[in-house]
Specification:
alpha+beta, BirA Bifunctional Protein, domain 2, 3-stranded antiparallel beta sheet, about 35% helix, globular
Length: about 350
């Protein structure tokens, strides 16, 4: 870390090569999307609901109407709801480079404001998105003039075929039979606690234990040498994804390189009643842990009645640039880091 501000001329000169590489990567990915028939859209950032996931924290504000009355609003944590409304409206292949905001997140891999690349394919299986991800890794490296992705002491070959690993198999490597703790109806907290290769507190839920095993025992080992696609999450950890053939798991995957999560993809859930149930469960858990909850986007739930089958994915664009340029942290590839 340095106390020299990012706008210091000498420091900016050091940062500038990575920033120019960022621009080249943005153009390369945009050209690829255009060649694939995607329409680039620009979703509004100010929304009635920022998203309804337990551990995502939003920046809230108020919109003052013409009548002088305030209305709670939020900066979105993802453009997802707005983009799915566009799918309901008839768009079939869309992408957006969106600024998004997440509170309580700051560090080498997190900025309160960052750029998310999100794209959707109507009528296509979510596995197609895995091929998209592999293409973006190659394009980013080429645009940055690199042959390797790097983060700290870790390296990944962006031109190698990604490893595809189920979440259940990843947990098996840590000595946990995950699916023995999952049913289509729910999860067995005690069964998972009994197998956990780490300390479990009495008030830890199944989700708490799952997340800690994933973050401490599995994620640090993913994407070394070649990218890893971690596939088929338990339904309880995939609030926006449709169930897979095995109803205990969902069509959700995450992309990793150098131990860093880069993207989160889904076969999209389009059942509004089930989506409402999951959102309410997520908000109940948020209220239990953090003492707050966010409103549901009723307009989004109404649009789900008209949304066709689709797959969609969000990628941390800044993280991709960071790995392609070998930068030490996310602030190094932001033109103007958050103060």
């Amino acid at each position: 870390m340095t106390d020299t501000p990012w706008w210091n001329a000498r420091r900016h000169a050091d940062r500038r090569p990575a920033l120019l590489a960022r621009n080249r990567i943005r153009r390369a990915l945009g050209a690829w999307l255009e060649d694939e028939g995607f329409i680039e859209v620009d979703p509004a950032a100010l929304q009635a609901s920022p998203g309804n996931e337990t551990h995502l924290h939003a920046f809230g504000t108020q919109a003052i109407g013409n009548d002088g009355r305030p209305r709670p609003m939020y900066l979105h944590t993802s453009p997802e709801f707005a983009m799915k409304k566009l799918l309901a409206a008839g768009e079939t292949r869309i992408a957006a480079f969106s600024h998004v905001w997440r509170n309580r997140e700051r560090g080498a891999l997190h900025s309160p404001e960052f750029t998310m690349l999100e794209w959707y394919r109507v009528g296509q299986d979510y596995t197609v998105l895995m091929n998209d991800c592999a293409a973006f890794l190659r394009l980013a490296a080429e645009a940055a003039g690199s042959t390797v992705l790097r983060f700290r002491d870790h390296a990944c070959d962006p031109f190698a075929q990604p490893e595809r690993l189920s979440v259940a198999d990843a947990f098996a490597r840590a000595g946990v039979d995950l699916l023995a703790t999952v049913t289509p109806e729910g999860t067995d907290r005690d069964a998972l606690a009994a197998q956990a290769p780490l300390r479990v507190d009495a008030d830890d839920t199944w989700s708490d234990i799952f997340s800690r095993i994933l973050s401490e025992k599995i994620e640090p080992h993913l994407g070394h040498g070649r990218p890893t696609i971690l596939d088929r999450y338990p339904v309880a950890e995939a609030a926006l994804a449709r169930p897979a053939e095995d109803p205990r798991v969902a069509e959700r995957f995450e992309l990793y390189a150098c131990g860093v999560e880069l993207a989160n993809g889904f076969g999209e859930l389009t059942d509004p009643a089930e989506q409402r149930r999951r959102f309410l469960a997520e908000m109940d858990e948020k209220a239990r842990i953090y003492g707050e909850r966010y409103p549901l986007d009723e307009d989004f739930l109404a649009a789900l009645h008209h949304m066709p089958p689709a797959s969609g994915i969000a990628m941390g664009f800044d993280r991709l640039v960071m790995l392609a340029t070998g930068a030490p942290g996310i602030d190094a590839v932001l033109w103007t880091p958050v103060g």
